[in-house]
Amino acid sequence: MRDPRDALVEASSLAQALDLDVIDALTVPVPRKRAGTLFGSGKVEEISEAIAAAEIGLVIIDGPLSPVQQRNLERVWKAKVLDRTGLILEIFGERAQSREGVLQVELAHLSYQKSRLVRSWTHLERQRGGFGFLGGPGETQIEADRRALDERIDRIKEALAKAVRTRGQHRAARKRTDYPVVALVGYTNAGKSTLFNRLTGAAVLAKDMLFATLDPTMRAVEISPNRTVILSDTVGFISDLPTQLVAAFRATLEEVLDADLILHVRDIAHPESAIQARGVTEILADLGLGTEAEARMIEVWNKADMLASEAAEALSAIAARTPRAVVISARTGQGMDALIAMIADELAEPVEEETLTIGFDQGRRRAWLFDHKLVKSEVQTEDGYRVAVRWSTRDRSRYLTL
Distances in Å between the alpha carbon of 19 and those of 13, 60, 78, 207, 287? Predict the structure, then answer.
């Protein structure tokens, strides 16, 4: 169970991510959920008075609301009400930049909206027609809206299918270049984009803000003289992620499924770091990455600079005894050399030496060997070049396909 105080801080941060002014925030014990209003009548009235006194126009419930509960609370409180799913959808809608991201957000939003259509038409009668086979005006309107939503959802799914095929082609192209892919995953605001920028020098939005990154970003990074990897920054995870969002962003997160190595970035200074880590693991399992992911995962304990010196020293001692764990601060650069060395070690392959004879007409192959820093020595002969190389099985396979 999460600490309600920490959950409240996270909910407030979600609101602030939309540039909303948080006037008040409180936890409300719910011993028994009421079907019509979630809370008991006394608590509903108490909150209503506070809303009226502060002239609040939007109330956010950090949890799921049924359409009926949302409608009833809005009616009593005379204010717009959003549940956790609706709030996260609003944030995603504001953050999405790529066409695929926009489509994924719209698909999730329409799926959410479809279940709440009844809210828009409660002023219309739902009585049966005189002959018993025609629906009332409200029912007709709801069905018409539902058909319109279904048609739009089908069009978005078709567009997304094309985007998924394109992304698959890009992944296939990367596999042909045979650069290993390293994916960053982690709870939202764990520091993935800051780490991405530190490793690549890219200008990716990195703020102390939930869901600062939504669309995936990829860059090639040289982690050693003869080792280049593709680094992928992904959308942040969050506990109680709405089901339709997991489904909608599955295509984006497929980058993680194909990754050769996964960096699980954790905000180690956060009081709920362990709970957040479990949430990330659960979502990875939902995507089809269970215990198999652990075999290719490094735990990156970030934000060490935010810990007291004694706590930081104790954490480093724990990391030293933990396989595939490293303590860093992406903001200050602390521990980056150790992280890069660990990535290189995890991706290292057995190498062997070989001597090749390359004809004068095979300049492309010779240039490829030099470009990839695989040449130990070279001697020109009457028939071409005798080249001594040091390479891995993967390098050899790539060379033979040229």
Answer: 10, 14, 22, 13, 31
